[in-house]
Amino acid sequence: MVPTHSHDHAHPHHHPHSHSHGHGHGPAAPHPAQAVTWSILRMAVVSRLMAAAVVSAALWAFVWLAMK
Q1: 14-60: per-residue pLDDT in tens?
Q2: Could you please report the per-residue DSSP string of 7-58?
């Protein structure tokens, strides 16, 4: 004969660290826009070209030093 249990073995699971969310929008809603301090997309075309030239020169300098 198998003994029967008259009490419930269920117990609540509380995990305060794994279920805390810092933002409060619905799961289907996108994240709200955040203020961007700097973006290459907000720069003028001339400024973008100058920044690209500086980055390119720095990379070529790195290649030149590596080959030396």
Answers
A1: 555 555 556 666 777 777 777 778 787 888 999 999 999 999 999 99
A2: S--------TTTS--S----TTSPPPP---S--GGGS-HHHHHHHHHHHHHH
